[in-house]
Design brief:
Blueprint (H helix, E strand, L loop, with lengths): L7 H7 L39 E8 L5 E6 L5 E6 L3 E6 L5 E7 L3 E6 L5 E6 L4 E5 L5 E4 L7 E6 L5 E6 L3 E6 L5 E6 L4 E6 L6 E5 L4 E4 L6 E5 L7 E6 L5 E6 L4 E5 L5 E5 L8 E4 L5 E6 L4 E6 L4 E7 L3 E6 L5 E6 L3 E7 L3
Antiparallel strand pairs: 1-28, 2-3, 3-4, 4-5, 6-7, 7-8, 8-9, 10-11, 11-12, 12-13, 14-15, 15-16, 16-17, 18-19, 19-20, 20-21, 22-23, 23-24, 24-25, 26-27, 27-28
Length: 346
């Protein structure tokens, strides 16, 4: 398919963004009745899963407009947020206070920390990429890295390379120390989400046509494809820390769990009434959190069983991330609000 540039207003509509009327609630409340959950081979979740109950620790205005990405520093002390207004803000995890603004560009669409927490990478709507050293604010700029918006960024586990996925239907691998382009991988449609496997030997992509692909980042060769999202966009992908499962959230309202080594579909999780546009994986690989901004719900899943742990509702959440200590969930809202939930119990 030949890609054409699409005006931002239309493109945002294609990517599920519909502004939902905001309620005046200050927390997300358990719904009185949740939609039916459909999974395969489900058993009861372990009683010690810490994400069976959470409380809202704080919420506060973060940006003037919809938050695109929440990224948490591996040091477990700070997190970053960015919005369609283009500003990246750095926040304290302990207090929720803003520390400073890191970088500003017209609409930052992707954001991630390096594995050592010393750098932050940002991709914008114009296709540019910037790597910023947080201690000095020195930056490596990659202008016109892609022809169209950069929707996703991912560092390799050792931090030596940065992968970028774009609306121009390409994945590019960059040398982080120099910004040099190492290779380009071509997809058939726009790339919405990418993630490295824990050993760095594979790179997974989620695409606008609903396809999921697994690539060798060193050679650019495709390892396998995963089919099952009914031609609906695969908005987010994640891989469990043990490298066994690929998780995808899609416009078909499902979260799917796949065997990474074989491509076998293990579970289809259904508890959203609209597109799943955000997912967050716990660092122990036991819990997945998913959100659909349209249906204003957040679902917590026990990954080994596919069991629904709990559902919160009340606000439109567009971005999610779990802290490295597995104790806190950070959410970014359609209206620019940042939410911080804390695990209740051990």
């Amino acid at each position: 398919m030949k890609l054409k540039y699409i005006p931002r207003q239309i493109l945002i509509g294609l990517l599920v963004i519909v502004i939902v009327p905001q309620t005046s609630c200050t927390s997300l409340r358990p719904p009185s009745q949740s939609p039916k959950t459909e999974v395969s081979e489900v058993t009861s979740p372990p009683s010690d899963n810490p994400w069976q109950k959470v409380k809202l620790l704080r919420s506060f205005p973060g940006h003037l407009r919809r938050i695109r990405v929440i990224a948490i520093n591996p040091d477990n002390r700070t997190f970053a947020s960015t919005s369609v207004s283009g500003k990246i803000k750095l926040w304290s995890l302990k207090t929720g206070k803003e520390i400073r603004s890191v970088y500003r560009r017209n609409s930052i669409d992707s954001l991630t920390f390096s594995p050592d927490g010393k750098f932050i990478a940002a991709g914008d709507y114009q296709g540019n990429i910037k790597l910023v050293e947080l201690s000095t604010d020195k930056a490596i700029s990659i202008p016109a890295a892609h022809r169209f918006p950069v929707w996703s960024l991912a560092f390799s586990p050792d931090g030596s390379t940065l992968a970028s996925g774009s609306w121009d239907a390409t994945i590019k691998i960059w040398e982080t120390s120099t910004g040099k382009l190492l290779r380009t991988i071509s997809e058939k449609d726009a790339v919405l989400s990418i993630i490295f496997s824990p050993d760095g030997k594979a790179l997974a992509s989620g695409n606008f046509d609903g396809s999921l692909n697994l690539w060798q980042p060193d050679t650019g060769k495709r390892i396998r494809s995963f089919r099952g999202h009914l031609l609906q966009p695969a908005y987010r992908v994640a891989i469990t820390p043990d490298g066994q499962l690929l998780v995808s959230g899609s416009g078909d309202k499902t979260v799917k769990l796949w065997k990474l080594q074989t491509g076998k579909l293990l579970h289809s999780l259904r508890n959203h009434s609209d597109a799943v546009i955000a997912i967050a994986m716990s660092p122990d690989g036991q819990t997945l959190v998913s959100s659909s901004s349209r249906d204003q719900t957040i679902n917590f899943w026990d990954l080994p069983t596919g069991k629904l742990l709990q559902t919160l509702e009340g606000e439109a959440i567009f971005a999610l991330a779990i802290t490295p200590d597995n104790r806190m969930l950070i959410g970014g809202g359609e209206d620019g609000t940042i939410y911080m939930w804390q695990v209740v119990g051990p």
